[in-house]
Amino acid sequence: MRHELPTLEYALDALSPVISKQTMELHWGKHVRAYINNLNNLIAGTKFENASLDRIIKESEGALYNNAGQVWNHMFYFEALSPKPRKTPEGRLLDAINKQFGSLETFKEQFNKSAIGLFGSGWTWLVRQENGTLLITQEQNAGNPLHNKTGNPLLCADVWEHAYYMDYQNRRADYLNAFWEVLDWTVVEKWF
User: What domains are there in the chain, each with its CATH number?
Assistant: First the structure.
């Protein structure tokens, strides 16, 4: 099975000014494409040659896991972004956020604090644990909650510098504050 770079549901300039076309061209067009190419090269002739991306990230290690994790994480991240997002959760997800964090605003503050505090590069996730509770987690590099068994992923923020540096330089907090303007809670609810 060959993994392919899918077509985004929106144009590369559609998330601007939150995420510029230049950042999208680099992030989606070059970084994600490179991870997919590396993944395809690494699975050739292995037991993962015809495996799903989920299986690869759950069972692999080393360079294979790092590239598969980056592909999975990026697909998940970009799918939840939209030029016309629904900016607040509703229903059961909103109830769960309010129960776990007190309010949507408190959740966003805690999520941003976690993402800002992640040393180096990686991801901040909201996951739903087996017992149904919500948890904010940090994963360095290609870390993924499915691989590390921390919970079922609901949303993530990419805090690798290539996700924001051209638009925000070293102002990770500004990027994270703007991130909520393009996050589509409809997609997060689907994963919930």
Answer: 21-79 (1.10.287.990), 91-191 (3.55.40.20)
List 81's β-bridge partners, or say none.
183
pTM strictly above 0.85: yes
Please give the structure tokens belonging to residue 81.
């972004």
> Is the peptide bond between 17 and the residue preceding it cis, with omega within 30 degrees of 0?
yes
- pLDDT per position in the chain (192 positions), as tens? 789 999 999 999 999 999 999 999 999 999 999 999 999 999 999 999 999 999 999 999 999 999 999 999 999 999 999 999 999 999 999 999 999 999 999 999 999 999 999 999 999 999 999 999 999 999 999 999 999 888 999 999 999 999 999 899 999 999 999 999 999 999 999 999
The residues near 182 (Cβ < 8 Å, ≥ 6 apart) are 15, 18, 19, 81, 82, 83, 85
How many CB atoms neighbour CB 109 within 10 A? 12
Q: Which distant-in-sequence residues (6+ apart) come within 8 Å of 175 by Cβ? A: 163, 164, 167, 168
